[in-house]
Design brief:
162 residues, alpha/beta, Rossmann fold, six-stranded parallel sheet, 15% strand, binds magnesium ion
Length: 162
């Protein structure tokens, strides 16, 4: 069960305490894109999101984007940000999380992963030994798996609150 539990939660990225992450020894942050940084319906980062990422870099973090989404989506989203980015990542598989680590040049214990999904982001990050931060999805994808996934997430989210 514990590998499904994040180290911390935040309602949205703007509420993540960046200086406390830095104090914990975190030096690299891997951000999921869809419904973490921006809605999956939003092709470009908002000014607010861009500012947030800039603030994170100014705090001293190296940043990397990682998405299970298509390459086109990630390239377009990252056009103005110009961050190291990985598409079709197949989280929670380790392969591309290792690649992200390589791009950041940090150790797993110095790395945080911020995402909105328990079974991809939190699980993948925990398997790698990252510090995991779960945010509420901005705009949940409501496909046929959505309700099943929410159902399966329910006991875990309940435990997080306790
Ligand atoms: Mg996501």
């Amino acid at each position: 069960m514990s590998r499904f539990l994040p180290d911390e939660t935040a309602d949205h990225i703007g509420l993540i305490d960046l200086s406390s992450l830095y104090e914990k020894g975190i030096r690299g942050i891997i951000f999921d894109i869809d419904d973490t940084l921006e809605s999956h319906r939003t092709p470009l980062p908002s000014e607010r999101t861009a500012q947030f990422l800039k603030k994170a870099e100014e705090t001293g973090f190296r940043i990397c984007l990682i998405s299970n989404g298509k390459e086109d989506r990630v390239l377009r989203f990252n056009e103005s940000l110009r961050l190291p980015a990985i598409s079709r990542a197949k989280k929670p598989r380790k392969k591309n999380l290792k690649k992200a680590l390589f791009l950041l040049g940090t150790k797993p214990s110095e790395t945080a992963l911020v995402g909105d999904q328990i079974f991809t982001d939190v699980l993948g990050g925990n398997r790698m030994g990252f510090y995991t931060v779960l945010v509420n999805p901005i705009d949940p994808i409501e496909n046929k798996f959505f309700y099943i996934k929410r159902f399966l997430e329910r006991p875990i989210r309940k435990r997080i609150k306790e």
